[in-house]
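Tokenised fold entry reproduced for absentees:

. . .
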Amino acid sequence: MFHSMMESMFHVHVPLLEKILRPMIVYLFLVLFLRIFGKRELAQLNPFDLVVLLSLSNTVQNAMIGDDNSVSGGLIGAFSLMAINWVLIRMMFFSPKVEQFFTGTERVLIRRGRMDHKSMRRELITEEELLGAIRKQGFDNIDDVERCVLEPNGTFYITGKTPSSGDANHKELLARLDSLQAELTAVKAKLA
């Protein structure tokens, strides 16, 4: 009984090479599909996108594991996924062309307070979604935004026309520290 339990848990029921290649192939296709379908999938997870991502994991499960449900098969599959990810990350680090192929480029969505509707259409981002993103960054309306960029990783990078109150306070604090440093230097010079 113990032997049959161990056999069913750890015996890999498909060839080892197949067990390694299945998750790697699925991984590469998923990365490619996310690249093709755009940064929007990463930027704004609305309920529809969330359903797609959750369903996607279940859809590719059998393609990754095949007819094998053993612990050993799962560990080999997990190792294969981590290995292909490790290789791809290093390739992207050492080759900007490989990185650009897999991640894409940034897209400017707002320039000088004006939405770029062509870029928004390309990324399938609505005005409401874009306004929500700039509000999350602390801007009340689009006129306050100098530039909004959708980065390849799906994050929004937003710069304001005028510095935010936090930036202004930081700049003022640095100016005061510089002033205090100058006064302290002058006092040290008088004492010496």
Q: What stands out?
A: The CA atoms of residues 157 and 169 lie 21 Å apart. The chain has two domains: 2-103, 107-160. The mean pLDDT is 82. The domain at 107-160 is CATH 3.30.240.20 (CRO Repressor).
